[in-house]
Every structure is written in structure tokens, then in C-alpha cells.
């Protein structure tokens, strides 16, 4: 049964706290297994990758077939029906246009002492993008990961995607080609992350790894963090819909089910100021569940983690939303813009009933790789900044050193860092002797 | 003995590769100890903090004295000599002015279908700043961590700083007050990170933790990453100076020693196209080492990790610099701007001989919390973005949904996500029925 809460009930706070703290991830500690896999790949390189892929993906590879050849890429791309290829192209164009607007500006200015200050952005040289395989092999994720990297100017982009039993999703390959990637490896799990982070005989190491994955991938990303950059540790997906009385319950139900069908650990929450809407959406979810292809997954998600919360007003809805800090937030209300000003912590906001979350998964333009598990409190969805770094710039003139050097010397001495002070003093003495 | 390499020598590549891969961090695996400390703080809260602080800092605390009182803050601030307070104020003003320029812009626009797209930045609600204690208790680090957070708009800022044997650096307290922080805890090590991440009876949890620390702090930050945001895993500090023949060898030597005096694991590297300068700097380092207060630390760093590399030209210097990806890069050359265009991977660049790195540590304006251990390949120094997150915004109109909805439906079906497709289809059917 999903949870039903009434924000005006005396026991609401306890129920809401339980909802917030519910652990939705597999609690199995895979960290030790992952540590072993990483050590193995570091020690034995390609041989370890081949052995692990035989074991986990039941696929026999050689150093030559770890990577898709140009001919294989061509063959896979040719298998994609035209209408799907066109949809991918439309999605890619919109994602590219959105992310191009994210490119930050370099800056350089002179301060009042004559010193030149500023910064410069530059792309990472090489990035690795993890694409889940099997059930969750999503071509849209390829676009969402690769396009921001390309927009940022990353020269080398490598994709790893497991191909269990050799199964390849041709749309994933086509999406990679559309996004400008042509280095694609048949690798998944912690071994793929290890190969990207440390390199092997055939796979050069990258500087940054992004993309979602299962518990093994997440643990591996956490372990290689520092050696390379990573985007985030993604958990199960979630949606919060805030809806007023003026909605089609079926639309809301389908939006919530589109989250639930991802994963049994996904979470769909409705907050509404209309008890009638709460009931109607609940009924519509059950009705739609009956015929849904992925009703087992979506049903389990809804039963175990679904929630419906009634509130006295939308201001209360916004407050609760901020405590949930949802990955996806749909505002199906009359004035979504006004409500969005109150919902501070969210990965992505979808404004108004004409904006189902699924639009954002594919063709809206914004990224669908978003912070989960309340991490929207402190982190952002994937964006071009994930593939850029800022180098700060400073150039003193003799005059500016005269103006601010003595303060630096004072602070250096106060921190018992004598050489710091002397490095400034040597220059000041030279100026004073002129 | 520091390493001396000649970029034109046949065995250069092997020597340079050894330099790049030299492990400068204590290899002791503290992860298990840290995991135990975090679990203890989660389970027992303040009681664990008090016990661990008694053990590691030899300091008896109570829940009431974990935090500095207003009166204690006042007392500590009054102990700071006026010239040091003035230097701190100057540093704070310059750091604030620099970071204010980093504030990114929100964006909102309409695309050609009529859809509204954009994003919005908002600060994290609460941040925790770790300040090392003992030898490395640096008031400048308080400014460098707290001011970007304040500029970003973070409402609640908590500082933890160990006070071994009760020793407090009054400049740290004053720096906190100048930066606008007044929540200061007598806590260090992994227990401080655990308290910030999970909260205790007296310390509310924060959303983001920044600041440098020892191996225990680094391991703890790595462990709580995901629960909260963290800035980076900082390693030992390093400087690369690229100098031509036209320099005062003493200035270069002092700049290199100002890095070496931080830590026995710090690294100072000189690359020069002048063999005479290479020799002169080496001699000047030895001469200055003889009288330096921290000669034991700086001498060990220089002996164990120092390096001098001669190159045939500055273009080669830039190439080597990019492979090192130094935290601090000083360009003591005639045309530093031109050389900076070739040095892509660096945390901070100091242009020209009038810009000793120590200026950047204190009063330059840019942040001194910078990516170490080659991580400038993929990450940036601390900046206001570390305390902000981006929420993406999308609002479809019926017309824009008509234009791009079918492509979303196609891709959803191709990914076997039926409810995703249905959520779009339900709206399109409604439009078609109008």
C-alpha cells in the first residue's frame, strides 16, 4: 500500500519523517566486491576486463572486440528504424541547444590596485560515459551524457555499455554517433569504471566519469573519485507531483507511473490541496496499472514507496517539497511559476500540466541526469560545468604588490609560514631599494 | 636529493613518469578507522564526539562547550593584534570582491515551439567548513571557505576546527566572524565530518562540507559524499614554477620554499629553459633553507619530492605542465599571458615574477582551496558554484507539446517505457480531440 498522509493530522510529522528516511536502495554492501574488481583491473588490465565480462555478461571478448569497430557501429546504426532515428535527432538538437546556453564566460579585469584578476574555463581532455545495459539501456541517457561533454569541448569521449549475452541496443549506438562519440566499449559494472579511471592496454584512462548505474557502478565511482572526477552517486529515481483540483487525474497518474515503471525502488509522491484529486489519482493509478506492460515493476514501486499527501494549501506543499528535495518536481497548478518560486530544492521543475516529466526525459532540452535521494539540496543535474574546470588567474604589478603585499606578509607571519612572507618581502625590498 | 631532469635526455620520459606517479600521501589505510568513527557518531551523537575529542585532542568537552559561545568568540577576537585584524579585513574584502564576480546568472527563454526553458541557481541551505587545527590552523582558509559560501547566499554556516589541548588560534575565530560565521565547534578529524553530515543532538546536519584536512578528514569526506555534498579530496599541496633566464633566483627559491614549508609531502617543481637559472635556484634554495624556521619540513619536502627540469623551450615547459596539472602554477617569464594560453590544466595561475604564490594564499582574491594531485585535470578550486545548485525549468505549451511530444513518445516506446509514452499521448489525444 502506498502511504497516505494528511498534513493537518497530528501524527503527520512522524509519518512524513518516515517517508523521508525510507531507505530505497539495496542495502547489500557491495563495496568489498567492487574494491576487488578495481584492484584486479588495475593489476591485470584487459585480461581482467575479459574475464569479468565473461563472468557477469556471459560474453567472450578479446582485446580487439572490447571496443565496437567502425563497421559494427555502422551496422548497428543501420538497424534503427527511420522514425526512431528522427526522434533521436530531434532530441539531440534540443538538448544541444539547451546546453549551449550553459557555457560559462571567462573573465579578466583590473582591480583598483592595478592587479589583473580573473578566471578561465577549459574542458577536461577526456571523459568516460557509463551507459547501463540490459533493461535500463537508454539511448536518451547517451544523449544526455555525451552532448554536454561535447558542448563543453571535451576532445575524447568514451562510452562503456554492458552487452549482456552480446545483446546490443542499436539505438544506444546511434545515439552515441549522433552525439559525436565513436569510442564505445562492451563493458559494464565496476570493471568498466575501473578501466575508465585507470586505463588498460587498450583503453586509455579518462579524467572524468559520468552516467548512472547500479549499486556496483555507484560504489566503483565513489572509489575512483579523486583519481578522476565523477558526476554524482545516483540512486533510485523519484518524482513529486504537486497538483491542485483542476487536473485530469489520468494525466497525473500516468506521470507518477512513468516514474514507478523505471525501477521497483523508484518513488512517486503526490501532494495535493484537493482530497478529491488525491482519491481520483489513486484510483487512476490502479486502473492504469492493470494494463501497463511494466505493471510488476511499477506496481511494486507504487505499493512500497508511493505516497499521497493532502495539504491545506499550496504553500504547505512547497514547504514539504523543499524537505523532500525531489529529483523531478511537477507543478500541475494554475500558477506554476508562482509556486516554483517557493520550491527551492529540486533537480528539475516541470511547470504546468502540459509538461509531463517524460518530456524532460527525452526532448525538453534540460538534462535528465538529475540529483536523487534528496541530493538536490546540494547538487545539480548534469550540465556543461561538469566537463569544464575553472583556472583562476592573478597578475600583480609592482604597484599592486606594494598595496597588498604587506598584508600578505602579516598573515603569513601570523600563520608561521616564514617563506611565504619572505617571498613577498624579497620583492617589496627590491621595490623599496629602487 | 631533489630530482634533476633534462627534457632532452634520452631517459627523460622514464624519469618524468616516475615524478608524476610518485605517491606523496601517507599510504596508511585509515578508511576502516574512519568508518568506525562515523558509525559511532551516528549512533551516539554528542557522547561520541565528546569521547573522541578527549581521546584525539586531549580536551574535555560537554554538549554545552562543543560550540564556542558568543562570549568566547568575543574574547578570542579581542586577542588579535590590530595589524593582523586589518590584514584579515583587507584579505576578506578582496576575496569577497573576487567571488562576487563568480555569481552565475539565472536564465529563462522561449524556444521556437513556444516552450519556456531555463534554469535557476539557489544556495545550499547549510554548509559546514572544516578548518584544520594544530600546525595547519590557518585563518586564511576560514576566509577562503566561508566567503564564497556567504557570497552564494548560504544561510547557515558552521565551522569545525580541532583545538588540541584546548589551544585556539584567535585569528581563526576572528576570520570566522569577519566572514559572517558564528557557529564554531571545537571538533576535528573524522568525527567533525560525521557530525556535520549526520547531525547530533547539538549540531544540526548540513548539506555541504568543504575544507581541507588530513587523511582522516579526507577519508571521512569520501564516505559521507552522497549524504552531503563535498568539495574535493585534497592531497598534499604543490607548486610548479616555470621560469626563464630573466629572474632573481632568490625570488623563485622562496616561492618554491613557500610550498615546501607547508608539509613534508608538499612538492615544488621548477621548469626552466635556462640551465644557469636551474643551478642558481637550486643554490638559492639551499642557502635559504639554512635559516628557515621550518627548515626541517621544507628541507624534507625539497629532498624527497622537489624537482628541477630543464627544457629546450617554453613550449615544452607548457606541455610538461599540462601533464603535471599543478595546483599552483607560477609563470615567471617575459610574456606570461602567452604562456598561460598553453598551460591548460592548473588550479591557479600566477602570472609574472611580481606575483608570488603567497599573494594568492592570502590577499590576491582568488581562492586558495585548489585541486591537488593532478586533479586540476578535471576539477576547479573552491568557488561560489560549490555552494549553489542549478534547478532546470521547463514549461510546455499545447503547441510545443504538439511539436515535440510525438518524438518523446517514440523514444519512450523504443525504451519500453510505456507509461512515459502514455503520459505524453494522453495530452496529445486531448489536444487532437479539441
UniProtKB/TrEMBL annotation, chains A, B:
Substrate binds at residues 237, 259, 262, 328, 361, 415, 420. InterPro entries: Ald_DH/histidinol_DH, Histidinol_DH_CS, Histidinol_DH_monofunct, Hstdl_DH. Its cofactor is Zn(2+). It comes from the Bacteria. Catalyzes the sequential NAD-dependent oxidations of L-histidinol to L-histidinaldehyde and then to L-histidine. One of its GO terms (molecular function) is NAD binding. Binds 1 zinc ion per subunit. It catalyses: L-histidinol + 2 NAD(+) + H2O = L-histidine + 2 NADH + 3 H(+). Its EC number is 1.1.1.23. The active site is at 327 (proton acceptor), 328 (proton acceptor). Belongs to the histidinol dehydrogenase family. One of its GO terms (biological process) is L-histidine biosynthetic process. Zn(2+) binds at residues 259, 262, 361, 420. Keywords: Amino-acid biosynthesis, Histidine biosynthesis, Metal-binding, NAD, Oxidoreductase, Zinc. GO terms for cellular component: cytosol. This is Histidinol dehydrogenase. It is an enzyme of class 1 (oxidoreductase). Pathway: Amino-acid biosynthesis; L-histidine biosynthesis; L-histidine from 5-phospho-alpha-D-ribose 1-diphosphate: step 9/9. NAD(+) binds at residues 130, 191, 214. Pfam families: Histidinol_dh (PF00815). NCBIfam families: hisD (TIGR00069).
